[in-house]
């Protein structure tokens, strides 16, 4: 005699109903404040290829689209002669609920003969480090398992904090690599911390990270003299 009570478990439709998306085609919905269920990792994105900041921005928009609060703090990305005085991502961030940014960079790029002062780059990077500490402390003062106001300030906490080019600043000794480790150690358990930058492997922080991605270059148009292009690089 057989038991027919579980005969529907092999039915594809029933199997789909047990998946998170229930097999339905995703669609766009209004963005309302929510709290992530599984945030709290440290991510490292490094390498000599294009796409580290782009990947981080993609995650930022995805998280904000779920109603999570996200903040982007950029190191070393001030103005440059090859870039207009506006970046497309800033315009998009302004239009996106729950996503904010700030830039602590200095004109030009450290170590380049572009008229900028390396001392100013160091001072700006140190200022960015202090701001990052303040933001991590702010996140530790709120309950990140609860929704946060989408239009709230970074001082009121965030579920994801992206420190863009912080690894480049550390590798160029504008900030102490030990201070980057301190940020990771100080972050609250539920804060997703994303660190980007550096062409050289950031050995000092790799063992502290939960996700490490090496963005490798095989070919880049800059090597053939192509300048930064609006809509792809800025």
Outline the secondary-structure elements.
Blueprint: H1 12-17, E1 42-46, H2 52-65, E2 70-74, H3 88-94, E3 99-103, H4 118-140, E4 160-164, H5 166-171, H6 177-186, E5 192-196, H7 203-206, E6 211-214
Parallel strand pairs: 1-5, 1-6, 2-3, 2-4, 4-5
Helix pairs in contact: 4-6
What does this structure look like?
The protein has seven helices and six strands, in the order αβαβαβαβααβαβ. It is of the alpha/beta class. Strands 3-2-4-5-1-6 form a six-stranded parallel β-sheet, with helices on both faces. The radius of gyration is 21 Å and the shape is globular. Residues 1-34 are annotated as: Disordered. This is Cob(I)yrinic acid a,c-diamide adenosyltransferase.
* Total DSSP helices: 7
What would the average pLDDT be, to the nearest integer?
86
Envelope shape: globular
Radius of gyration: 21 Å
Report the structural category. Answer: alpha/beta
Q: Unreliable runs, pLDDT <50, ≥5 residues?
A: 112-116
- The succession of helices and strands, N to C, reads HEHEHEHEHHEHE
For the report, how would you describe the main beta sheet? 6 strands, parallel
Number of distinct beta strands: 6
Helix content: 25-40%
Give the neighbour order of strands across the main sheet: 3-2-4-5-1-6
Strand content: 5-15%
- Tell me the span between the first and last alpha carbons: 69 Å
Biased composition (Basic and acidic residues): 15-34
Region (Disordered): 1-34
Organism: Natribaculum luteum
Protein name: Cob(I)yrinic acid a,c-diamide adenosyltransferase
């Amino acid at each position: 005699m057989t038991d027919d009570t579980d005969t529907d478990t092999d039915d594809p439709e029933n199997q789909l109903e047990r998946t998170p998306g229930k097999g339905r085609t995703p669609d766009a919905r209004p963005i309302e404040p929510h709290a992530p269920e599984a945030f709290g990792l440290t991510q490292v994105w490094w390498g000599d290829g294009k796409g580290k900041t782009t990947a981080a921005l993609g995650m930022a928009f995805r998280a904000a689209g779920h109603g999570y609060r996200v903040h982007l703090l950029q190191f070393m990305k001030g103005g440059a002669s090859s870039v207009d005085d506006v970046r497309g991502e800033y315009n998009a961030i302004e239009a996106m609920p729950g996503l904010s940014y700030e830039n602590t960079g200095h004109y030009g790029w450290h170590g380049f003969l572009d008229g900028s002062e390396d001392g100013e780059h160091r001072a700006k990077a140190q200022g960015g480090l202090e701001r990052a500490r303040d933001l991590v402390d702010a996140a530790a003062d709120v309950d990140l398992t609860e929704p946060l106001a989408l239009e709230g300030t970074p001082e009121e906490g965030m579920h994801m904090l992206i420190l863009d080019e912080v690894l480049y600043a550390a590798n160029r000794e504008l900030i102490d690599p030990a201070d980057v480790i301190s940020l990771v150690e100080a972050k609250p358990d539920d804060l997703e911390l994303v660190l980007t930058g550096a062409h050289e492997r950031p050995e000092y922080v790799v063992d502290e990270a939960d996700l490490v991605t090496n963005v490798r270059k095989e070919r880049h148009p800059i090597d053939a003299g192509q300048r930064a292009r609006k809509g792809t690089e800025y």
